[in-house]
Amino acid sequence: MRLAWPIRSGLGSWRSPTSSYSEAVGRALQLVVGGKAEERWGEAWQRRSQTRRRAVVVPPALAAAALFFLLFLSLALPNMAGLGSSGGGGASAFGRCTHALVRALPESLCQQALRREKGKEVDLARAEREHQLYVGVLKSKLGLQVLELPADESLPDCVFVEDVAVVCEETALLTRPGAPSRRKEVEVMKRALESLNLNIVEMTDEHATLDGGDVLFTGREFFVGLSKRTNRRGAEILADTFKDYAVSTVPVSDSLHLKSFCSMAGPNLIAIGSSEAAQKALKTMQQMSDHRYDKLTVPDDAAANCIYLNIPGKGHILLHRAPEEYPESAKVFEKLKDHMLIPIANTELEKIDGALTCCSVLINKTSQL
């Protein structure tokens, strides 16, 4: 369900992004015909008003310009959707990142963390090693400023920081997680985000639930999964918070979160799993969006959760699941020749439904602290 047009103006009045297209076309049309577009249209309308029996003769140059722009629109508009919703950088700055928030693993994670299905026991020592390597990549290899929050034994799921905050540009929405046991995690996250001088919005509606793992930001718009952890009211509050972007909802039934089987692998590239549920969700997103995204289909749903970054001086970077874990999916990622590929192991946290994006909140801080 599409909740909002990308641009909101006035009190409750919604303006379609196509209005920006018509404005741009009008300006370009004036340039093509020598700045005389309005004058010629006015003359034609005046002649029509004087006598309806006389046919309006359209100047050849104007007719040619009109045909040119019809062709231009047919080719360009699919790729211009969301142009007016770029906010403070939008699609052109997608993937830029200066800071990352992470949190240490509590020992209580092994026995008390939430999981959809009971499975193998988590090896805490190995989980900590994998997490340290993950943080090390963000800090040392990519040069991000990493804020490491301490673990809390009373909050066994606290390592999964993505679920408690959605950050876009200079605004952070503190969520209301769908699992009641996780709601105290927001307190520490709030203090950390305040230290970065971000605009903080708190989700206080008791009827709303939202997990950050259900929020996919493409650089142009938001897709929000409606799952057992996220409801429609939560999606509405997200739309109210980030008014410059369109927000569409996507039903999620067979997975924990929307990003359990998809993520962004590039500025215009959606990584998607091969399962029926993943492909159904992709179809919904394609139907809801005004923009045409490229897709990268991987055999394994879990491997479709990856982290794309665009770091100045380093270029396109993709953190993805290690070949030892998902060899066939890793082969698909290797086709991205313009990306720096960084394989990351996530064997242990995956046992409790954790994915790569779950363990960090990425922030592009453009203003000074």
Question: How would you sum up this structure, described in words?
Answer:
By secondary structure, the chain is α/β, with parallel strands linked by helices. It has 2 domains: 18-80, no CATH class; 90-363, L-arginine/glycine Amidinotransferase, Chain A. Helix content is 31%, strand content 22%. It contains 9 helices and 18 strands. The strands form 6 sheets. The chain has a 4-stranded mixed beta sheet with strand order 1-11-10-9, sandwiched between helices. Helix 1 (18-32) packs antiparallel against helix 3 (60-80). It is globular and about 80 Å long. The two termini are 37 Å apart.
Features:
3-stranded mixed beta sheet; 369 residues; hydrolase; globular; 4-stranded mixed beta sheet; membrane; DDAH-like; L-arginine/glycine Amidinotransferase, Chain A; 2 domains; 18 strands; 31% helix; Dimethylargininase; alpha/beta
Radius of gyration computed on alpha carbons: 24 Å
For the sheet with most strands, the description reads: 4 strands, mixed
N→C terminal distance:
37 Å
CATH topology of the largest domain: L-arginine/glycine Amidinotransferase, Chain A
Give the amount of beta strand, in percent.
15-25%
CATH class of the largest domain: Alpha Beta
CATH architecture of the largest domain: 5-stranded Propeller
Our count of domains comes out at 2
- State mean pLDDT (0 to 100 scale): 84
Number of strands: 18
Helix content: 25-40%
Low-confidence stretches: 5-56, 77-89
Strand order of the largest sheet: 1-11-10-9
How would you classify the helix and strand content by structural class? alpha/beta
Number of helices: 9
Family: Belongs to the DDAH family.
GO molecular function: amino acid binding; dimethylargininase activity
Keywords: Hydrolase, Membrane, Transmembrane, Transmembrane helix
Active site: 257 (proton donor), 358 (nucleophile)
